[in-house]
Amino acid sequence: MEKFVKLTGVAAPMPLVNIDTDMIIPKQFLKTIKRSGLGVNLFDEMRYDDNGNEIPDFVLNQPAYREAKIIVAGDNFGCGSSREHAPWALLDFGIRCVISTSFADIFYNNCFKNGILPIVLPQEEVEKLMDDAERGANAVLTVDLENQEITGPDGGTIGFEVDPWRKHCLLNGLDDIGLTMEKAASIDAFESKAATERPWV
Amino acid sequence: MSPKTLYDKIWDAHLAHEAEDGTSLLYIDRHLVHEVTSPQAFEGLRMANRKVRAPDKTIAVPDHNVPTTEGRDNPEAMPEDSRIQVAALDKNAKDFGIHYYPVSDVRQGIVHIVGPEQGWTLPGMTVVCGDSHTATHGAFGALAHGIGTSEVEHVLATQTLIQTKSKNMKVEITGKLPAGVTAKDITLSVIGLTGTAGGTGYVIEYCGEAIRDLSMEGRMTVCNMAIEGGARAGLIAPDEKTFEYIKGRPHAPKGAQWEAALAWWKTLYSDDDAHWDKVITIKGEDIAPVVTWGTSPEDVLPIDAEVPTPESFSGGKTEAAKRALEYMGLKAGQKLKDIEIDTVFIGSCTNGRIEDLRAAAEILKGKKIKVKRAMVVPGSGLVRAQAEEEGLAEIFTDAGFEWRLAGCSMCLAMNPDQLQPGERCAATSNRNFEGRQGRGGRTHLMSPAMAAAAAVTGKLTDIREMN
Fold first, then answer.
1. Cα distance between residue A59 and residue A12, in whole Å
2. Chain B residues whose beta carbon lies within 8 Å of the beta carbon of residue A22
3. Are B442 and B425 in contact (CB under 8 A)?
4. Candidate from B50, B160, B296 with C-beta closest to A18
5. Class of domain B14-164 as given by CATH
6. Which of A132, B133, B334, B341 has the smallest CB count inside 10 Å?
7. pTM attached to this predicted model
8. What is the pLDDT of residues A96-144, one digit of tens each?
9. Structure-derived torsion over alpha carbons of residues A38, A39, A40, A41, reported in degrees to the nearest 10
10. How much is the ipTM here?
């Protein structure tokens, strides 16, 4: 997993509420057996017409946002299907950070496994960043994970909360499985105790 | 000992390691696997030269991609990309030595229907799957939830999941349900009340007389859609109905182990004075048969209501409602009962069980469909076989329904069962998102009986007005 320390990039505004993972990556692109290459189909049905041509109004098709690294989104981003193809598609497009008032649980977890930082902020702060994001190419935000701070285009800063363990893993690009395997003794002990207490499992 | 909720009890019984910062390793009793969210996880194991830690607790079945038409054993029946995914699952199941129900096996079906049917799902277990509707298994008093592919790989390798504990929410449905109101109406009505983010950060326990009165099938329908309300999981405490359902199933405990299991299962309930972070109480008699009008499961109303005006909502929801009405081709103020339907889909992990097929067949008996097409996709090969034995299949085909083989089918339209742009569908599935059942397709969610009624009248129909 790529480390996430400090990110500076254009933020794209997506004020729609309840953006679900079917919107982020429609099911026809779930038939891959790889993690890469999904960026071209990110938001496919909002981004392209029936003939596969770009819909010019869609935010990521606009010149200012084609290289966006951050999305500022409406409430409950990433709801619905558990598909990790959603964060894979975001990452493949180049999005490393999503800011919203709330995220669906599974999507939120999936982001951290892929080096994407989802940031939860109160309504008024998301609205302020949404205003910033609507300034097009001038909407450059800097997200500093170490100091848990977002700097806007006017130099103002907003702090954010993040789980310390998840922060540690993102800052260092740590692989969960390797870390859990270091606790194999605890898992072994649990397994033998459970085998006595609940042998039917 | 301090009083605990059912969730607290299951959590405590599966804690393999707890770090100082509250991050926990939760031991996983059952890991269900399907073809769409697992190939990258198995690939990850191979690349790191890792094994599946507990193959005997890992169960795989292809369901999302598989065609539901006859002759599907022939690999040529599938498009190449689907065939590659199913072939990958075949190979991964064999290489890693996990339990497997291939397409050719009569026990194959939707993973969340197969698990309970085969007795893999038991009370007090932790159950995960790379699929958000894993919440279904909560009907047995198991802590069950969906995970991403990285977590699938983590569970395959370590049989644990890194978790932080959720908060406890109680959703109580008191009293009796009126005639025509089903488990689907309960679960949709709860989401209508709380919103699709109302459960975020919580595990919900459903309780109350109306929940107790539900069959196991109905309880699975309720828990299945906990995720649509944003909750990590939905739970119902096990009782005699639960034990009766499990007894004698192929992987249920037997003999002395059954007795030992039963003794523990009977301790699985929330203590009277347990702490709840949030409580919602709904009177069963206030619940009506409902349908969805928009593109989120929270866009739900009683069937005798009208399409709402976007301005009746606040915040970002007004814009979302405008977009939904445009997508759905509906006008504010239109009666829901006037909406004409092109297609009916009965099936899915929400409503693809035998009781669902019985409820739909009851409406269809001796009648003909008035929609362009209608299909019923049983949740498993065994549900299909039982429905044939009970004569339900004949009722469906006589009415004009297509009688399909088991799979996820048009719930998410990854196989050839898809809506065309603008096609309007009465569906018993779980999501009405834009494009969910096919690009441009328009989905109205409802119970199996309501979907059957819509098939007969050609419009969204109040089940209470059917003869």
1. 7
2. 431, 433-436
3. yes
4. B296
5. alpha beta
6. B334
7. 0.96
8. 999 999 999 999 999 999 999 999 999 999 999 999 999 987 899 999 9
9. 60
10. 0.93
